[in-house]
Amino acid sequence: MDYKLDFSVVFDEMPDLLLGALATLGLALAGMTLALIIGILGVAARKSRFCVLRGLVIGFVEIVRNTPFLVQIFFIFFALPMLGLRFNPTVTAIIALAVNGGAYAIEIIRGGVDNIQKGQIEAGLALGLHKAQVFRLIVLKPALRSIYPSLTSQFIMLTLTSSVCTSIAAYELTSVAQIIESDTFRSFEVYFTITIMYLIISWMMMSMFALINRHYFSYPVR
Amino acid sequence: MPQTPNIDTPLIAMEGVEKWYGTFHALKSINLMVRKGEKIVLCGPSGSGKSTLIRCINHLEPFEEGRIVVDGTALDDSSRTIDAVRREVGMVFQSFNLFPHMTVLENCALAPMRVRGTKKAEAESIARKYLERVRIQDQADKYPAQLSGGQQQRVAIARALCMEPKAMLFDEPTSALDPEMVKEVLDTMIGLARDGMTMICVTHEMGFARQVADRVIFMASGEIIEEGEPEVFFRNPAHARTRAFLGEILAHH
């Protein structure tokens, strides 16, 4: 092997890499937040008495979960403009992450909602609350708590999947790395560095999730 | 004895109520009138339809035929009548069903705030009042999982009372409790009965029935088999099925 490691490139480009990492963090947080909203609203729609709504959610989840993320993002970026819907790469990336993460979130949260004992719902109804209030006030929080580990690991996946957004030249860590690599040919140094950076981003996410868990789901259960 | 008209009109009236689960005939032409302030104990073997009967009153179970009128509101399947009835009828369940993510106080203040639109401060003072009534006010800031079964059930009673209901339905309120906790819940219910609450209790606690019930009703296979004042009911049951049932129950107590 005559490849001599030279990390000086990486150090020179560190400001750009950090900005890229920040962009990745931003995409991930925006995507996750929207995915969570889609997940909760999706489950509410899935549980509603309107069969059209239920059917739409089932169809949405089926399509998104059984097609590649790359195809989904290409569809939004290249196919939707044909219908007059045009988004810049960053917005496209956020939409794609939200849609993809949202579909998985719907399935995960639905599992949590299905696990809530029927008695909880009946107690709410017997007190005079409406179905929507029962879902929002009684069912949702314990349901989210019960699936929190699966939901957060799905969100870590989503964060890492954001690297695929490089394919439409969205501004994020992997695309920044690609540009540096093609300018300098220091493939090993660059990809080694962003590997570490992704690892750190994941750890940061995990600590954030742990913090939220401790703050929001701290009530005791037997 | 002079009678005012509202003593004649029952608070809860069931007329010819029929209910099926698929092909299973769960309630057969149920007729039941409950006057204001009356205490009814419903007993019978498991699967006899007693829980189903009280769950029809607040429409947790829909029924196919007949009429149920609660405080002048005839239940149909519209949310308007269902809401009206549920606001006036409290329910206590076998498994307590407290909301685990809310403190005792929040459990109690929830419905007054969300259903009646009571302001938070006022809802909390109502909650404290009823928690005091079930003698559990010092646990107000705890979560349900931190309480014993008996305490949880008393909170559940307080939670229902916070809506200041006109009647209370009890669905086997002591069946899930350890024996040493049954008394504290029954004492709470007896207190409630003494204060004049209209109550329908599904229970096998025959001591409780003797002490507070105006009428004891025996059900089997979805039918009301017999009813009577507790003294008569226990001393001299008319039907063989009632005698067999009482024999079983009393042998265990």
UniProtKB/TrEMBL annotation, chain A:
The record, for InterPro entries, names: AA_ABC_transptr_permease_3TM, ArtM/GltK/GlnP/TcyL/YhdX-like, MetI-like, MetI-like_sf
In terms of domain of life, where is this protein from?
Answer: Bacteria
GO CC terms on record?
A: ATP-binding cassette (ABC) transporter complex
Q: Where in the cell is it found?
A: Cell inner membrane; Cell membrane
Q: Which UniProt keywords apply?
A: Cell membrane, Membrane, Transmembrane, Transmembrane helix, Transport
Residues in coiled coil: none
Presence of keyword Transport: yes
Topological relation to the membrane, as annotated: Multi-pass membrane protein
Its GO biological process terms? amino acid transport
Q: Does the keyword Transport apply?
A: yes
Transmembrane residue ranges? 20-44, 56-79, 91-109, 191-212
Every ABC transmembrane type-1 domain range: 21-209
* Pfam families for the chain: BPD_transp_1
A GO molecular function annotation here is: transmembrane transporter activity
Q: Report the CDD domains cross-referenced here.
A: TM_PBP2 (cd06261)
**PANTHER family, A to Z:** ABC TRANSPORTER PERMEASE PROTEIN, MEMBRANE COMPONENT OF AMINO ACID ABC TRANSPORTER
Q: Could you say which protein family the record assigns here?
A: Belongs to the binding-protein-dependent transport system permease family. HisMQ subfamily.
State the name under which the record lists this protein.
Answer: ABC transporter permease
Organism, per UniProt?
A: Phyllobacterium sophorae
